[in-house]
Target: Fe2OG dioxygenase domain-containing protein
Amino acid sequence: MTEDDGSLSYYKRINCICGWEVKFVYGVAFTLAVFEAKRLLVLSLEILAEWQVIYFAGGSQPVAFTLMDVTLGLSCALITIRTICKMIDEIQFMLQCCGHTSYADWFLFDWQRDVIFTKKVDYASQEEMATQSRISDEDYRYRGVPFKDEPICCFIFLLYHHNIGFNVNERSLSEISNIINHRCSRHRYRISLKRVEKFNTKCSLMLSYNPQIDTISDQQQSSVKAELFWRTERCPQKGVVKQVASKLLRALSEKGLALLVNHGIPECKMKAAYRALDAFCELPEETRAKYERVSPANHGYVKPGMEKFSDEKELRHAFNVTGCEGILPEEEIHGFRSAVEELERDFKQLSTMLLTALSVGLEQSHDFLLSKHAHILGPGNASTLRLLYYPPLCAPEQGLTRCGVHCDYGTFTLLAQDCEGGLEIQTPHGERWSRVGHLPGAILVNTGELLAHWTKGQLPALRHRVVMPEHCGRGRHSIAFFVHPDDDVAIEPLDTKITVASQETTPCRLQKKKRSVLTAYQHLQRRFRETYAS
Ligand SMILES: O=C(O)CCC(=O)C(=O)O
Ligand SMILES: [Fe+2]
Model:
Protein backbone atom coordinates (compact mmCIF):
# COMPACT_ATOMS: atom_id res chain seq x y z
CA MET A 1 0.00 0.00 0.00
CA THR A 2 1.45 3.42 -0.82
CA GLU A 3 0.41 6.92 0.04
CA ASP A 4 0.41 9.37 -2.81
CA ASP A 5 -0.82 12.99 -2.57
CA GLY A 6 -2.65 12.06 0.57
CA SER A 7 -4.74 9.47 -1.26
CA LEU A 8 -4.35 5.82 -0.50
CA SER A 9 -3.72 3.31 -3.24
CA TYR A 10 -3.44 -0.37 -2.74
CA TYR A 11 -1.04 -2.29 -4.93
CA LYS A 12 -1.78 -5.80 -3.96
CA ARG A 13 -1.99 -8.47 -6.60
CA ILE A 14 -5.02 -10.65 -6.80
CA ASN A 15 -4.50 -14.22 -5.72
CA CYS A 16 -7.03 -16.96 -5.56
CA ILE A 17 -7.66 -18.34 -2.09
CA CYS A 18 -9.29 -21.42 -3.47
CA GLY A 19 -7.81 -24.86 -3.07
CA TRP A 20 -6.02 -26.79 -5.81
CA GLU A 21 -9.20 -28.80 -6.41
CA VAL A 22 -11.12 -25.77 -7.61
CA LYS A 23 -8.18 -24.41 -9.62
CA PHE A 24 -7.66 -27.81 -11.21
CA VAL A 25 -11.29 -28.24 -12.27
CA TYR A 26 -11.36 -24.68 -13.49
CA GLY A 27 -8.18 -25.35 -15.51
CA VAL A 28 -9.56 -28.54 -17.03
CA ALA A 29 -12.80 -26.86 -18.05
CA PHE A 30 -10.91 -23.95 -19.58
CA THR A 31 -8.49 -26.21 -21.48
CA LEU A 32 -11.44 -28.20 -22.75
CA ALA A 33 -13.11 -25.07 -24.06
CA VAL A 34 -9.93 -23.94 -25.84
CA PHE A 35 -9.44 -27.41 -27.29
CA GLU A 36 -13.03 -27.65 -28.54
CA ALA A 37 -12.88 -24.16 -30.03
CA LYS A 38 -9.69 -25.09 -31.89
CA ARG A 39 -11.25 -28.31 -33.14
CA LEU A 40 -14.27 -26.41 -34.40
CA LEU A 41 -12.09 -23.90 -36.21
CA VAL A 42 -9.89 -26.51 -37.88
CA LEU A 43 -12.90 -28.56 -38.95
CA SER A 44 -14.67 -25.54 -40.40
CA LEU A 45 -11.56 -24.61 -42.39
CA GLU A 46 -11.20 -28.16 -43.68
CA ILE A 47 -14.83 -28.27 -44.76
CA LEU A 48 -14.48 -24.95 -46.54
CA ALA A 49 -11.33 -26.00 -48.36
CA GLU A 50 -12.33 -29.56 -49.22
CA TRP A 51 -16.09 -29.31 -49.61
CA GLN A 52 -16.22 -30.57 -53.21
CA VAL A 53 -14.08 -33.65 -52.34
CA ILE A 54 -16.12 -34.45 -49.21
CA TYR A 55 -19.37 -34.07 -51.10
CA PHE A 56 -18.44 -36.36 -53.98
CA ALA A 57 -16.90 -38.95 -51.63
CA GLY A 58 -20.23 -39.11 -49.73
CA GLY A 59 -18.66 -37.70 -46.53
CA SER A 60 -21.19 -34.98 -45.78
CA GLN A 61 -23.10 -37.01 -43.20
CA PRO A 62 -20.13 -37.98 -40.97
CA VAL A 63 -18.86 -34.42 -41.26
CA ALA A 64 -22.23 -33.07 -40.12
CA PHE A 65 -22.16 -35.41 -37.10
CA THR A 66 -18.62 -34.41 -36.18
CA LEU A 67 -19.63 -30.77 -36.47
CA MET A 68 -22.55 -31.35 -34.13
CA ASP A 69 -20.34 -33.21 -31.69
CA VAL A 70 -17.79 -30.40 -31.57
CA THR A 71 -20.44 -27.72 -31.20
CA LEU A 72 -22.02 -29.57 -28.33
CA GLY A 73 -18.62 -30.18 -26.74
CA LEU A 74 -17.83 -26.49 -26.83
CA SER A 75 -21.07 -25.40 -25.28
CA CYS A 76 -20.79 -28.10 -22.59
CA ALA A 77 -17.32 -26.88 -21.72
CA LEU A 78 -18.57 -23.28 -21.53
CA ILE A 79 -21.49 -24.31 -19.34
CA THR A 80 -19.09 -26.18 -17.05
CA ILE A 81 -16.89 -23.13 -16.70
CA ARG A 82 -19.88 -20.93 -16.00
CA THR A 83 -21.24 -23.34 -13.39
CA ILE A 84 -17.92 -23.58 -11.61
CA CYS A 85 -17.51 -19.80 -11.62
CA LYS A 86 -21.00 -19.38 -10.21
CA MET A 87 -20.35 -21.94 -7.53
CA ILE A 88 -17.14 -20.24 -6.45
CA ASP A 89 -18.83 -16.84 -6.48
CA GLU A 90 -21.65 -18.20 -4.38
CA ILE A 91 -19.23 -19.57 -1.81
CA GLN A 92 -17.33 -16.29 -1.70
CA PHE A 93 -20.56 -14.42 -1.33
CA MET A 94 -21.74 -16.62 1.50
CA LEU A 95 -18.42 -16.40 3.30
CA GLN A 96 -18.36 -12.67 2.64
CA CYS A 97 -14.74 -12.93 1.79
CA CYS A 98 -12.52 -12.15 -1.18
CA GLY A 99 -12.99 -9.06 -3.23
CA HIS A 100 -9.90 -7.00 -3.83
CA THR A 101 -9.94 -5.07 -0.59
CA SER A 102 -13.20 -6.39 0.83
CA TYR A 103 -16.11 -8.48 -0.36
CA ALA A 104 -18.02 -5.22 -0.90
CA ASP A 105 -15.93 -4.77 -4.08
CA TRP A 106 -18.50 -6.88 -5.83
CA PHE A 107 -21.07 -4.21 -5.47
CA LEU A 108 -18.81 -1.39 -6.47
CA PHE A 109 -17.96 -2.24 -10.05
CA ASP A 110 -18.62 -4.68 -12.79
CA TRP A 111 -15.61 -6.88 -12.20
CA GLN A 112 -16.24 -9.32 -15.00
CA ARG A 113 -16.92 -6.76 -17.71
CA ASP A 114 -13.80 -4.84 -16.79
CA VAL A 115 -11.64 -7.95 -16.87
CA ILE A 116 -12.87 -8.87 -20.33
CA PHE A 117 -13.01 -5.49 -22.01
CA THR A 118 -10.36 -3.44 -20.29
CA LYS A 119 -6.70 -4.11 -20.73
CA LYS A 120 -5.34 -3.15 -17.36
CA VAL A 121 -7.37 -1.78 -14.52
CA ASP A 122 -5.90 -1.22 -11.12
CA TYR A 123 -8.73 -2.48 -8.97
CA ALA A 124 -6.72 -1.47 -5.99
CA SER A 125 -6.81 2.18 -6.85
CA GLN A 126 -9.79 3.93 -5.33
CA GLU A 127 -9.71 6.63 -8.02
CA GLU A 128 -9.71 4.09 -10.81
CA MET A 129 -12.43 2.06 -9.19
CA ALA A 130 -14.60 5.15 -8.95
CA THR A 131 -14.51 5.47 -12.74
CA GLN A 132 -15.45 1.84 -13.39
CA SER A 133 -18.92 0.79 -14.35
CA ARG A 134 -21.10 0.32 -11.32
CA ILE A 135 -22.96 -2.90 -10.80
CA SER A 136 -26.56 -2.93 -9.74
CA ASP A 137 -27.94 -4.73 -6.73
CA GLU A 138 -29.80 -7.15 -8.99
CA ASP A 139 -26.89 -7.97 -11.25
CA TYR A 140 -23.99 -8.75 -9.01
CA ARG A 141 -25.01 -12.33 -8.36
CA TYR A 142 -24.59 -13.21 -12.01
CA ARG A 143 -21.16 -11.70 -12.40
CA GLY A 144 -17.80 -12.97 -11.38
CA VAL A 145 -16.27 -11.70 -8.20
CA PRO A 146 -12.69 -10.80 -7.53
CA PHE A 147 -10.56 -13.14 -5.48
CA LYS A 148 -8.38 -12.11 -2.64
CA ASP A 149 -5.56 -13.84 -0.86
CA GLU A 150 -6.70 -13.12 2.66
CA PRO A 151 -10.39 -13.28 3.37
CA ILE A 152 -11.75 -10.27 5.17
CA CYS A 153 -14.73 -11.96 6.66
CA CYS A 154 -16.95 -11.07 9.44
CA PHE A 155 -18.80 -13.18 11.89
CA ILE A 156 -21.93 -14.49 10.26
CA PHE A 157 -24.15 -17.41 10.63
CA LEU A 158 -26.99 -18.33 8.44
CA LEU A 159 -29.23 -20.99 7.24
CA TYR A 160 -29.62 -20.64 3.55
CA HIS A 161 -32.45 -22.28 1.74
CA HIS A 162 -32.03 -24.27 -1.40
CA ASN A 163 -35.26 -22.99 -2.81
CA ILE A 164 -34.34 -19.35 -2.27
CA GLY A 165 -31.45 -19.35 -4.63
CA PHE A 166 -28.54 -21.61 -3.83
CA ASN A 167 -29.11 -23.46 -7.00
CA VAL A 168 -26.99 -26.58 -6.71
CA ASN A 169 -27.96 -30.07 -5.76
CA GLU A 170 -27.27 -31.80 -2.50
CA ARG A 171 -24.24 -33.65 -3.81
CA SER A 172 -22.45 -30.57 -4.99
CA LEU A 173 -23.30 -28.90 -1.70
CA SER A 174 -21.63 -31.65 0.24
CA GLU A 175 -18.64 -31.49 -2.09
CA ILE A 176 -18.38 -27.76 -1.51
CA SER A 177 -18.65 -28.22 2.21
CA ASN A 178 -15.92 -30.85 2.15
CA ILE A 179 -13.60 -28.61 0.17
CA ILE A 180 -14.23 -25.61 2.39
CA ASN A 181 -14.04 -27.51 5.63
CA HIS A 182 -10.77 -29.03 4.49
CA ARG A 183 -9.15 -26.02 2.86
CA CYS A 184 -10.42 -23.27 5.08
CA SER A 185 -10.14 -24.90 8.47
CA ARG A 186 -7.46 -22.38 9.32
CA HIS A 187 -9.99 -19.63 8.65
CA ARG A 188 -12.50 -21.28 10.94
CA TYR A 189 -15.27 -21.84 8.43
CA ARG A 190 -17.65 -24.66 9.02
CA ILE A 191 -20.33 -25.85 6.70
CA SER A 192 -22.89 -28.49 7.42
CA LEU A 193 -25.72 -29.85 5.41
CA LYS A 194 -29.20 -30.79 6.47
CA ARG A 195 -32.27 -32.28 4.88
CA VAL A 196 -35.49 -30.68 5.99
CA GLU A 197 -38.10 -32.29 3.78
CA LYS A 198 -40.82 -31.88 6.35
CA PHE A 199 -40.88 -28.15 5.79
CA ASN A 200 -41.14 -28.30 2.07
CA THR A 201 -37.52 -27.46 1.71
CA LYS A 202 -35.03 -29.51 -0.20
CA CYS A 203 -31.94 -28.80 1.79
CA SER A 204 -30.27 -26.13 3.80
CA LEU A 205 -26.71 -25.09 4.13
CA MET A 206 -25.44 -23.96 7.48
CA LEU A 207 -22.38 -21.86 7.45
CA SER A 208 -20.57 -20.27 10.30
CA TYR A 209 -17.50 -18.16 10.50
CA ASN A 210 -16.07 -16.22 13.36
CA PRO A 211 -12.66 -14.65 13.14
CA GLN A 212 -12.94 -13.32 16.71
CA ILE A 213 -13.19 -16.73 18.28
CA ASP A 214 -10.13 -18.89 17.99
CA THR A 215 -11.91 -22.10 17.27
CA ILE A 216 -15.54 -22.83 16.83
CA SER A 217 -16.25 -26.04 18.64
CA ASP A 218 -19.00 -28.25 17.33
CA GLN A 219 -21.12 -27.33 20.26
CA GLN A 220 -20.75 -23.61 19.60
CA GLN A 221 -21.47 -24.16 15.97
CA SER A 222 -24.78 -25.85 16.48
CA SER A 223 -25.86 -23.09 18.80
CA VAL A 224 -25.91 -20.24 16.31
CA LYS A 225 -28.70 -21.27 14.02
CA ALA A 226 -32.00 -19.47 13.82
CA GLU A 227 -34.66 -19.89 11.23
CA LEU A 228 -38.35 -19.42 10.77
CA PHE A 229 -39.99 -22.52 9.41
CA TRP A 230 -43.62 -21.91 10.00
CA ARG A 231 -44.41 -18.60 8.38
CA THR A 232 -47.07 -20.03 6.09
CA GLU A 233 -48.75 -22.13 8.75
CA ARG A 234 -51.55 -20.55 10.71
CA CYS A 235 -51.40 -23.03 13.51
CA PRO A 236 -47.87 -24.38 13.61
CA GLN A 237 -47.07 -27.66 15.27
CA LYS A 238 -45.77 -27.28 18.80
CA GLY A 239 -42.58 -29.14 17.97
CA VAL A 240 -41.80 -26.77 15.10
CA VAL A 241 -42.24 -23.68 17.24
CA LYS A 242 -40.09 -25.22 19.95
CA GLN A 243 -37.33 -26.00 17.50
CA VAL A 244 -37.28 -22.43 16.16
CA ALA A 245 -37.52 -21.05 19.69
CA SER A 246 -34.49 -22.91 20.93
CA LYS A 247 -32.44 -21.92 17.87
CA LEU A 248 -33.44 -18.29 18.21
CA LEU A 249 -32.69 -18.23 21.91
CA ARG A 250 -29.30 -19.84 21.52
CA ALA A 251 -28.37 -17.42 18.75
CA LEU A 252 -29.53 -14.38 20.74
CA SER A 253 -27.90 -15.53 23.95
CA GLU A 254 -24.55 -16.33 22.40
CA LYS A 255 -24.28 -13.70 19.69
CA GLY A 256 -26.95 -11.13 20.50
CA LEU A 257 -28.33 -11.50 17.00
CA ALA A 258 -29.87 -13.94 14.57
CA LEU A 259 -30.21 -13.78 10.83
CA LEU A 260 -33.58 -14.74 9.42
CA VAL A 261 -34.15 -16.12 5.97
CA ASN A 262 -37.40 -17.45 4.63
CA HIS A 263 -39.26 -14.81 6.63
CA GLY A 264 -41.80 -13.96 3.97
CA ILE A 265 -41.17 -10.23 3.44
CA PRO A 266 -40.23 -9.74 -0.21
CA GLU A 267 -37.18 -7.68 -1.10
CA CYS A 268 -39.24 -5.55 -3.52
CA LYS A 269 -41.19 -4.08 -0.60
CA MET A 270 -37.93 -3.01 1.07
CA LYS A 271 -36.74 -1.47 -2.17
CA ALA A 272 -39.99 0.45 -2.62
CA ALA A 273 -39.46 1.95 0.84
CA TYR A 274 -35.80 2.77 0.08
CA ARG A 275 -36.93 4.60 -3.06
CA ALA A 276 -39.66 6.47 -1.19
CA LEU A 277 -37.12 7.73 1.38
CA ASP A 278 -34.66 8.69 -1.38
CA ALA A 279 -37.36 10.79 -3.01
CA PHE A 280 -38.19 12.38 0.35
CA CYS A 281 -34.54 13.27 1.00
CA GLU A 282 -34.41 15.05 -2.35
CA LEU A 283 -37.23 17.41 -1.36
CA PRO A 284 -36.25 20.99 -0.42
CA GLU A 285 -35.26 21.42 3.23
CA GLU A 286 -38.30 23.53 4.06
CA THR A 287 -40.64 20.83 2.70
CA ARG A 288 -38.88 18.12 4.72
CA ALA A 289 -39.10 20.34 7.81
CA LYS A 290 -42.92 20.05 7.67
CA TYR A 291 -42.59 16.39 8.56
CA GLU A 292 -39.98 16.71 11.30
CA ARG A 293 -40.28 14.59 14.44
CA VAL A 294 -41.63 16.58 17.38
CA SER A 295 -40.97 15.22 20.91
CA PRO A 296 -42.34 13.44 22.86
CA ALA A 297 -43.93 11.66 19.90
CA ASN A 298 -41.45 9.62 17.91
CA HIS A 299 -43.16 9.89 14.52
CA GLY A 300 -41.58 11.92 11.73
CA TYR A 301 -38.46 12.92 9.88
CA VAL A 302 -35.16 12.96 11.75
CA LYS A 303 -32.65 15.08 9.83
CA PRO A 304 -28.88 14.51 10.05
CA GLY A 305 -27.49 15.57 13.42
CA MET A 306 -30.88 15.57 15.18
CA GLU A 307 -30.31 12.23 16.91
CA LYS A 308 -26.88 11.52 18.40
CA PHE A 309 -25.51 8.32 19.86
CA SER A 310 -21.93 9.59 20.08
CA ASP A 311 -19.87 12.78 20.13
CA GLU A 312 -19.25 12.48 16.41
CA LYS A 313 -21.46 14.08 13.78
CA GLU A 314 -23.81 11.38 12.56
CA LEU A 315 -24.77 11.64 8.94
CA ARG A 316 -28.12 9.98 8.36
CA HIS A 317 -31.69 10.73 7.41
CA ALA A 318 -34.39 8.74 9.17
CA PHE A 319 -38.15 8.67 8.86
CA ASN A 320 -39.89 7.15 11.89
CA VAL A 321 -43.38 5.77 11.36
CA THR A 322 -45.13 4.97 14.62
CA GLY A 323 -48.36 3.67 13.15
CA CYS A 324 -50.44 6.16 15.12
CA GLU A 325 -51.72 8.03 12.13
CA GLY A 326 -48.87 10.53 12.01
CA ILE A 327 -48.55 12.52 8.81
CA LEU A 328 -46.69 11.07 5.84
CA PRO A 329 -45.37 12.95 2.78
CA GLU A 330 -47.84 11.26 0.44
CA GLU A 331 -48.73 14.57 -1.22
CA GLU A 332 -45.13 15.11 -2.35
CA ILE A 333 -44.18 11.47 -2.83
CA HIS A 334 -46.89 9.38 -4.30
CA GLY A 335 -46.68 5.82 -2.94
CA PHE A 336 -44.87 6.70 0.31
CA ARG A 337 -47.88 5.69 2.40
CA SER A 338 -48.49 2.34 0.72
CA ALA A 339 -44.77 1.47 0.86
CA VAL A 340 -44.57 1.99 4.63
CA GLU A 341 -48.00 0.57 5.44
CA GLU A 342 -47.25 -2.71 3.68
CA LEU A 343 -43.97 -3.04 5.53
CA GLU A 344 -45.62 -2.21 8.86
CA ARG A 345 -48.12 -5.01 8.33
CA ASP A 346 -45.45 -7.53 7.37
CA PHE A 347 -43.03 -6.60 10.14
CA LYS A 348 -45.81 -6.72 12.71
CA GLN A 349 -46.72 -10.23 11.61
CA LEU A 350 -43.11 -11.35 11.72
CA SER A 351 -42.66 -9.83 15.18
CA THR A 352 -45.71 -11.70 16.43
CA MET A 353 -44.15 -14.97 15.34
CA LEU A 354 -40.84 -14.13 16.95
CA LEU A 355 -42.52 -13.09 20.21
CA THR A 356 -44.30 -16.46 20.26
CA ALA A 357 -41.02 -18.29 19.64
CA LEU A 358 -39.25 -16.29 22.34
CA SER A 359 -42.03 -16.97 24.87
CA VAL A 360 -41.74 -20.67 24.20
CA GLY A 361 -37.95 -20.48 24.41
CA LEU A 362 -38.24 -18.71 27.76
CA GLU A 363 -40.44 -21.59 28.94
CA GLN A 364 -43.54 -19.46 29.26
CA SER A 365 -46.96 -19.87 27.69
CA HIS A 366 -46.82 -19.15 23.96
CA ASP A 367 -48.69 -15.83 24.36
CA PHE A 368 -46.65 -14.64 27.33
CA LEU A 369 -44.71 -11.96 25.42
CA LEU A 370 -47.57 -11.29 23.04
CA SER A 371 -49.69 -10.14 25.95
CA LYS A 372 -47.01 -7.53 26.75
CA HIS A 373 -47.03 -6.40 23.12
CA ALA A 374 -50.76 -6.40 22.52
CA HIS A 375 -50.89 -3.03 20.73
CA ILE A 376 -47.93 -3.04 18.34
CA LEU A 377 -48.33 -0.02 16.01
CA GLY A 378 -51.47 1.04 17.84
CA PRO A 379 -52.02 3.70 20.51
CA GLY A 380 -50.17 2.90 23.72
CA ASN A 381 -47.27 1.10 22.07
CA ALA A 382 -44.03 2.70 20.82
CA SER A 383 -43.08 0.12 18.18
CA THR A 384 -41.73 2.01 15.19
CA LEU A 385 -40.84 1.38 11.59
CA ARG A 386 -37.81 3.45 10.68
CA LEU A 387 -36.52 4.11 7.16
CA LEU A 388 -32.87 5.09 7.10
CA TYR A 389 -30.70 6.66 4.45
CA TYR A 390 -27.01 7.41 4.83
CA PRO A 391 -25.74 9.66 2.00
CA PRO A 392 -22.68 8.56 -0.01
CA LEU A 393 -19.33 9.54 1.41
CA CYS A 394 -16.01 9.09 -0.22
CA ALA A 395 -13.49 8.69 2.53
CA PRO A 396 -13.57 8.36 6.30
CA GLU A 397 -13.48 11.84 7.85
CA GLN A 398 -12.46 12.79 11.35
CA GLY A 399 -15.41 13.49 13.65
CA LEU A 400 -17.96 12.10 11.22
CA THR A 401 -19.76 8.80 11.33
CA ARG A 402 -22.96 7.20 10.08
CA CYS A 403 -24.39 5.91 13.33
CA GLY A 404 -22.70 5.95 16.74
CA VAL A 405 -22.43 3.01 19.14
CA HIS A 406 -25.69 2.14 20.86
CA CYS A 407 -28.03 -0.61 22.00
CA ASP A 408 -31.61 -0.49 20.79
CA TYR A 409 -34.07 0.37 23.52
CA GLY A 410 -36.96 -2.02 23.12
CA THR A 411 -37.59 -5.76 23.06
CA PHE A 412 -35.86 -6.53 19.79
CA THR A 413 -35.20 -4.93 16.41
CA LEU A 414 -35.68 -6.38 12.95
CA LEU A 415 -33.23 -4.88 10.49
CA ALA A 416 -33.11 -5.09 6.71
CA GLN A 417 -30.19 -3.49 4.90
CA ASP A 418 -28.95 -2.98 1.36
CA CYS A 419 -25.57 -4.11 0.10
CA GLU A 420 -23.61 -0.96 1.02
CA GLY A 421 -22.40 -2.47 4.32
CA GLY A 422 -20.99 -0.63 7.32
CA LEU A 423 -23.03 -2.22 10.09
CA GLU A 424 -20.81 -3.51 12.89
CA ILE A 425 -21.63 -5.35 16.08
CA GLN A 426 -19.78 -5.95 19.29
CA THR A 427 -20.12 -9.57 20.30
CA PRO A 428 -21.61 -9.77 23.79
CA HIS A 429 -18.61 -11.42 25.36
CA GLY A 430 -15.85 -9.49 23.65
CA GLU A 431 -14.60 -6.00 22.99
CA ARG A 432 -13.88 -6.39 19.30
CA TRP A 433 -16.11 -5.15 16.53
CA SER A 434 -17.26 -7.44 13.73
CA ARG A 435 -18.80 -6.49 10.46
CA VAL A 436 -22.24 -7.74 9.64
CA GLY A 437 -22.35 -8.43 5.96
CA HIS A 438 -25.25 -8.21 3.61
CA LEU A 439 -27.17 -11.30 2.72
CA PRO A 440 -29.85 -10.36 0.18
CA GLY A 441 -33.30 -10.75 1.58
CA ALA A 442 -32.20 -11.67 5.08
CA ILE A 443 -33.44 -9.86 8.17
CA LEU A 444 -31.32 -9.40 11.24
CA VAL A 445 -32.91 -9.80 14.67
CA ASN A 446 -31.08 -8.07 17.50
CA THR A 447 -31.85 -7.99 21.17
CA GLY A 448 -32.86 -4.66 22.69
CA GLU A 449 -32.32 -3.32 26.21
CA LEU A 450 -35.71 -4.36 27.56
CA LEU A 451 -35.38 -8.00 26.57
CA ALA A 452 -31.89 -7.97 28.06
CA HIS A 453 -33.27 -6.54 31.28
CA TRP A 454 -36.22 -8.94 31.40
CA THR A 455 -33.90 -11.90 30.97
CA LYS A 456 -31.31 -10.59 33.46
CA GLY A 457 -28.77 -10.20 30.69
CA GLN A 458 -29.03 -13.76 29.49
CA LEU A 459 -30.17 -12.40 26.17
CA PRO A 460 -27.74 -9.48 26.04
CA ALA A 461 -28.52 -6.24 24.21
CA LEU A 462 -26.38 -5.95 21.13
CA ARG A 463 -24.05 -2.94 20.85
CA HIS A 464 -23.87 -1.84 17.25
CA ARG A 465 -22.86 1.04 15.00
CA VAL A 466 -22.67 1.97 11.33
CA VAL A 467 -19.20 3.04 10.23
CA MET A 468 -18.10 5.15 7.28
CA PRO A 469 -17.45 3.31 4.03
CA GLU A 470 -13.91 2.28 3.15
CA HIS A 471 -14.44 3.18 -0.50
CA CYS A 472 -16.67 5.62 -2.29
CA GLY A 473 -20.02 4.08 -1.57
CA ARG A 474 -23.45 4.49 -3.05
CA GLY A 475 -25.20 5.55 0.11
CA ARG A 476 -26.68 3.10 2.58
CA HIS A 477 -30.33 2.19 3.02
CA SER A 478 -31.75 0.22 5.88
CA ILE A 479 -35.09 -0.39 7.52
CA ALA A 480 -35.40 -1.01 11.24
CA PHE A 481 -38.52 -2.24 12.94
CA PHE A 482 -38.23 -1.55 16.66
CA VAL A 483 -40.48 -3.83 18.67
CA HIS A 484 -41.53 -2.28 21.98
CA PRO A 485 -43.82 -3.53 24.72
CA ASP A 486 -47.02 -1.63 25.48
CA ASP A 487 -46.31 1.67 27.24
CA ASP A 488 -47.58 0.62 30.67
CA VAL A 489 -45.61 -2.64 30.91
CA ALA A 490 -43.25 -2.61 33.90
CA ILE A 491 -39.67 -3.44 33.06
CA GLU A 492 -38.81 -5.82 35.84
CA PRO A 493 -36.79 -8.97 35.30
CA LEU A 494 -39.10 -11.74 34.25
CA ASP A 495 -39.47 -14.89 36.22
CA THR A 496 -38.07 -17.06 33.45
CA LYS A 497 -36.17 -20.27 33.51
CA ILE A 498 -33.91 -19.80 30.54
CA THR A 499 -32.36 -23.05 29.49
CA VAL A 500 -29.45 -21.55 27.62
CA ALA A 501 -26.14 -21.40 29.44
CA SER A 502 -25.90 -18.37 31.65
CA GLN A 503 -22.82 -16.30 30.82
CA GLU A 504 -21.08 -13.22 32.05
CA THR A 505 -22.31 -10.44 29.78
CA THR A 506 -21.29 -6.88 29.02
CA PRO A 507 -24.08 -4.96 30.73
CA CYS A 508 -25.99 -2.45 28.68
CA ARG A 509 -26.59 0.85 30.37
CA LEU A 510 -30.02 -0.06 31.70
CA GLN A 511 -28.53 -2.73 33.92
CA LYS A 512 -25.65 -0.72 35.34
CA LYS A 513 -27.70 1.39 37.71
CA LYS A 514 -30.25 0.11 40.13
CA ARG A 515 -33.36 2.18 39.74
CA SER A 516 -36.96 1.96 40.74
CA VAL A 517 -39.18 0.02 38.35
CA LEU A 518 -39.86 1.98 35.18
CA THR A 519 -42.55 1.43 32.60
CA ALA A 520 -41.61 0.80 28.99
CA TYR A 521 -42.80 4.34 28.15
CA GLN A 522 -40.67 6.00 30.85
CA HIS A 523 -37.61 4.05 29.80
CA LEU A 524 -38.03 5.04 26.18
CA GLN A 525 -38.59 8.72 26.95
CA ARG A 526 -35.42 8.70 29.03
CA ARG A 527 -33.46 7.32 26.10
CA PHE A 528 -34.98 9.85 23.71
CA ARG A 529 -33.96 12.69 26.02
CA GLU A 530 -30.41 11.36 25.97
CA THR A 531 -30.14 11.05 22.20
CA TYR A 532 -32.28 13.75 20.62
CA ALA A 533 -30.91 17.27 20.42
CA SER A 534 -33.43 19.72 21.88
O1 LIG B 1 -28.81 1.47 9.67
C1 LIG B 1 -28.55 0.54 10.37
O2 LIG B 1 -28.18 -0.51 9.90
C2 LIG B 1 -28.65 0.60 11.87
C3 LIG B 1 -29.62 1.61 12.38
C4 LIG B 1 -29.76 1.52 13.84
O3 LIG B 1 -29.07 0.81 14.50
C5 LIG B 1 -30.79 2.31 14.54
O4 LIG B 1 -31.39 3.19 13.93
O5 LIG B 1 -31.03 2.03 15.72
FE1 LIG C 1 -29.84 0.45 16.43
About this structure: Residues 406, 408, 464 surround fe (ii) ion (ligand 2) (CB under 6 Å). DSSP finds 15 helices and 18 strands in the chain. The first strand starts at residue 2 and ends at 4.
